[in-house]
Specification:
alpha+beta, Beta-Lactamase, Alpha-Beta Plaits, eight-stranded mixed beta barrel, five-stranded antiparallel beta sheet, elongated, binds ligand C2E, binds magnesium ion
Length: about 700
């Protein structure tokens, strides 16, 4: 029994020890092959066992480690952790984790995560520490990177991340602050939602082309905030590529550069503008002048340079002081700017010298000169008004030199010419205007003389109306057109083509037109008083600036009422161009007058637009075929076709039609057969002075016997 027992005992022990050995070798096998280091320590933290992974992970062999305290291999800052943990394990068994830095043989530390527990003896007392050590350096690094990236993402600048299609995935807080859009409002939408519309497609195409080629783009763009405000940003776009090299994301980083732009603008302003008057300086003027010369050469339209120099400016500086001088220059700048169109340039060259550059004047040189003169005189008048300089009242004047610039290539020469002309204006007695070109100068002088004479003529009543008969196809007189004549004291009878355009340019057409209206009504009143002439109508020509006067309708109606004339006898001849200037205003005025019985004839018809589209809307009663078509009906098939078309147009609009300039029977017959039954022209009579027209009447009008 005992033996058995012994043998039994012996057999169990053996079995047990065999098992233990087997188990131990299994564990060793596991430990030897584990990629983590496995180690055991005594309670003082000294290595009792280390697995071979210590070599692969940290470069230290078993020999180097056994018997040494594990803390020797820990980062000095982390060393205290181990004894504390061992203490803890002895008191309270369980599995613990410890994260610390462990030295590598070749220098540096690895981040290590260990699971640590106690091993117990037969009495259940902890007598060893068993641990695993796993190198987590890479994971730690990735976490660190993510944390830094997250902080970096939330910087002062706006950040936006989109996928490869431009769909927004993420934005940061600064994005919201700058754009006004929250994350929720933009996620899933396209980055294009931020565009301001300030850049054209070509701009964005070039940007994306650069990103595709180089992986990045940098520049300034105008974006739009949620509140609609457009603002500048400095933007960097970077393409993020995946392992296969394809773009997976775009990252946009931007800063609001409103402030920087404002500063840049201010710097630019200083470079191109005069600080005292805020006008363009010489540099900017030269820039614009160069452009103007090029565009004038292209469009064949004239431009003009007006060189302005204040008279006696030195005196004010010397007597009143420089601050008053500065005030005068500032006010001069304001007055000059107020006199010209926004597209014209007013610049200060320095001192008391200014330049006004006019663009887009007439293509005809003498007309352009006349336009430049009118502006120049306006400037002189504006600068001649008294100035208030702080507490002083001050009178000043200026001299202006003008040079026209179509066909000019040399800017410097042009400026010199204007300067020279200005100098001549000064020597001619100041407060005046001179042209550089002597021919131009004399033409302008003649025009100025004519203008003065025109003023006197209006005051002194040197005008008369001549009456040209209008007849119907029976040859019966239906009325007349009143044509203006100037009985000039020296030149004799002058025709309208010599003075109407000047009267229009100078505004004198307004009083002149009023006089025509008065006289025509007086004539109608006289005709109305006689039974044989009571049926006659009278047509008067109305010019554009007269028609566009705000009180034109009232003026006409008041005159009719005062003279007691039947409005149905007065016909106003208008031209296409004047109506098209402001067609709504024209229609309103015509309707207002038509309501009283007045009628309207479209003068010189066929030479303008002659489009059915707008004709339909105008309350006309007659089209007047222009003389040029009538003259050529037999020599030019085109003219004949146009005349016929006008008749057709009039018929389809329910208007009467009259032909002007009818000189021959053949012309009359052609018109008659084309359906035009009213005529005016030398064939029936020239424009006659009132007395001659009386005589004409007595033979043209049917005598009572004829009527019977
Ligand atoms: P318009 O209104 O087209 O006048 C017709 C012009 O043709 C008149 O020239 C007239 O004398 C001329 N004429 C008439 N029949 C014949 C003809 O058979 N053969 C030729 N060769 N010519 C003929 P006029 O009087 O020199 O007037 C020229 C233009 O001056 C007028 O053209 C009109 O636009 C303007 N005008 C005339 N009087 C006034 C007026 O009182 N106020 C305004 N604003 N303009 C006027
Ligand atoms: Mg006319
Ligand atoms: Mg005409």
């Amino acid at each position: 029994m005992k033996i058995r027992l012994v043998s039994n005992n012996f057999g169990e022990r053996e079995l047990f020890e065999t098992r233990l050995r087997e188990s131990e070798s299994r564990y060793r096998l596991l430990a030897d092959n584990s990629s983590d280091m496995i180690a055991s320590l005594d309670l003082n933290g000294r290595y009792l066992y280390v697995s071979p992974a210590s070599v692969t992970l940290f470069g230290q062999t078993e020999k180097e480690l056994l018997g040494r305290p594990a803390t020797d291999f820990m980062h000095p800052d982390d060393r205290r952790l181990l004894p504390v943990l061992i203490e803890k394990i002895r008191e309270r068994p369980g599995i613990h984790t410890l994260t610390y830095r462990r030295r590598r043989k070749n220098g540096g530390y690895a981040w290590v995560e260990s699971t640590v527990q106690g091993a117990r003896d037969g009495a259940g007392t902890v007598n060893e520490i068993v641990l695993t050590a796993r190198d987590i350096s890479e994971r730690r690094q990735a976490e660190e990177d993510r944390r830094i990236a997250a902080i970096a993402f939330e910087t002062q600048g706006g950040m936006i991340v989109s996928d490869a299609d431009g769909t927004i995935l993420r934005v940061n807080r600064a994005f919201t602050e700058i754009t006004g859009y929250t994350l929720a409002e933009v996620v899933g939408r396209k980055t294009g939602m931020l565009n301001s519309g300030h850049h054209d497609q070509a701009f964005y195409d070039a940007m994306w082309e650069t990103i595709a080629r180089t992986g990045t783009w940098q520049g300034d763009v105008w974006n739009r905030r949620k509140n609609g405000e457009v603002y500048p940003v400095g933007l960097i776009i970077t393409a993020v590529t995946g392992p296969a090299g394809n773009v997976t994301h775009y990252v946009g980083a931007f800063t609001d550069i409103t402030q920087r732009k404002a500063a840049e603008d201010e710097i630019e302003h200083l470079a191109f503008y005069d600080p005292l008057t805020r006008l363009p300086n010489r540099r900017l003027l030269e820039d614009r002048l160069n452009q103007a010369l090029a565009s004038s050469a292209r469009s064949r339209r004239e431009g003009a340079l007006l060189f302005i120099d204040l008279d006696n400016f030195k005196t004010i500086n010397d007597t009143l002081g420089h601050d008053k001088g500065d005030l005068l220059l500032q006010q001069t700048a304001q007055r000059l700017t107020a006199c010209v169109r926004e597209t014209d340039t007013v610049a200060r060259l320095g001192g008391d010298e200014f330049v006004v550059m006019l663009e887009d004047l007439s293509g005809n040189r003498s007309e352009a000169a006349a336009q430049a003169r009118i502006v120049g005189e306006k400037l002189l008048a504006a600068l001649g008004k008294p100035y208030r300089l702080a507490s002083c009242e001050y009178e000043s004047s200026a001299s202006i030199g003008v040079s026209l610039f179509c066909d000019h290539e040399n800017m410097d020469k042009l400026l010199k010419q204007a300067d020279l002309a200005m100098y001549r204006a000064k020597t001619a007695g100041r407060n005046g205007l001179r042209f550089f070109d002597p021919e131009m100068q004399s033409a302008i002088a003649a025009r100025a003389m004519l203008e003065a004479e025109l003023r006197t003529a209006i005051q002194e009543g040197q005008f008369t109306l001549h009456y040209q008969p209008q007849v119907n196809s029976m040859g019966r007189l239906t009325g007349a057109e009143a044509l203006l004549r100037w009985q000039h004291p020296e030149h004799g009878l002058m025709f309208p083509d010599l003075f109407i355009s000047l009267a229009e340019e100078t505004g004198l057409i307004v009083p002149l037109g009023r006089w025509v209206l008065e006289s025509a009504c007086a004539q109608l009143a006289a005709w109305a008083a006689r039974p044989d002439t009571a049926h006659l109508t009278l047509a008067i020509n109305v010019s554009a600036s007269q028609f566009h006067q705000a009180d034109f309708v009232e003026q006409v109606l008041a005159t009719l009422e005062r003279t007691g004339v039947d409005p149905r006898k007065l016909k106003l001849e208008l031209t296409e161009s004047m109506l098209l200037d402001d067609i709504d205003d024209a229609i309103a005025k015509m309707l207002a007058m038509k309501a009283f019985g007045l009628s309207f004839s479209m003068d010189d018809f066929g030479t303008g637009y002659s489009s059915l589209a707008y004709l339909k809307n105008l309350p006309l009663s007659q089209l007047k075929i222009d003389r040029s078509f009538v003259t050529d009906v037999h020599s030019d098939p085109n003219a004949a076709a146009i005349a016929k078309t006008i008749v057709f147009l009039a018929q389809s609009l329910g208007l009467t039609v009259i032909a002007e300039g009818v000189e021959t029977e053949a012309q009359r017959d052609f018109l008659e057969s084309s359906g035009c039954h009213n005529y005016q022209g030398y064939l029936f009579g020239r424009a006659l002075p009132p007395e001659a027209f009386e005589a004409y009447l007595s033979q043209a009008l049917p005598r009572p016997a004829d009527c019977a």
